[in-house]
Amino acid sequence: LPQARAGIISTVEVLKVMEAFVNEPNYTVWSDLSCNLGILATLLSHTDFHEDIQVFVRDVFSPIGERLGWDPKPGEGHLDALLRGLVLGKLGKAGHKATLEEARRRFKEHVEGKHILSADLRSPVYVTVLKHGDSSTLDTMLKLHKQADMQEEKNRIERVLGAISQPELIQKVLTFALSEEVRPQDTVSVIGGVAGGSKQGRKAAWKFVRDNWEELYNRYQGGFLISRLIKV
């Protein structure tokens, strides 16, 4: 992919190579593919090809998604659980219909306390329902954040809030990032999640950082978090 970004080889050739991995069972390979496709989607988000790349993601990830399913199988290892979370999150965010429907069903049961989501499925489910959700979805997620006993769960929610799509809800997430509900050291994760969530999120996050620069600089001056914030 770096060669494609540099214009040395065509993006089409890269996508053809990616298609050849549809039957690959290895987590590390899929993680690399996912990362590179994410970069490509970011580059194409300003073009007419944005929806095409979502279709491509759904096509490439759906066979492995169907093979893995939603529930652990006897004898599978830690990497299989990681792969399931990665694949379902990618499919859900890209709007794969069956994945979206199942994520919404499991999220509802989780919120109602009927069937609590396993730790490895929470991020992909949260990302999916937020990406295709509304103000009520965001309110439910913020409520889960407030009720969470473990800091790990609070951080998990903070990292995915930026998946929300509507401009007014993106603003709500950014305001939340600077609220007392979020530890100062975790604010950057929330803003970074918004910046990485969508083209609209990236623009909104950059404006938010500029508008609140004095407060952010005073919080993090001299520390690595300010450089991380600029990088994202």
Automatic annotation (TrEMBL):
Q: Which domain of life does the UniProt lineage start with?
A: Eukaryota
Matching entries from Gene3D superfamilies are given as: 1.25.50.20
Q: Listed GO cellular component terms?
A: cytoplasm; extracellular space; membrane
User: For the ERAP1-like C-terminal domain, which residue ranges apply?
Assistant: 4-231
Keyword terms: Aminopeptidase, Hydrolase, Protease
Annotated GO molecular function terms are: metalloaminopeptidase activity; peptide binding; zinc ion binding
GO BP: peptide catabolic process; proteolysis
Presence of keyword Protease: yes
Similarity comment: Belongs to the peptidase M1 family.
Recorded hits in PANTHER family, A to Z, give: PROTEASE M1 ZINC METALLOPROTEASE (PTHR11533), PUROMYCIN-SENSITIVE AMINOPEPTIDASE-RELATED (PTHR11533:SF174)
> What is the name of this protein?
PSA aminopeptidase
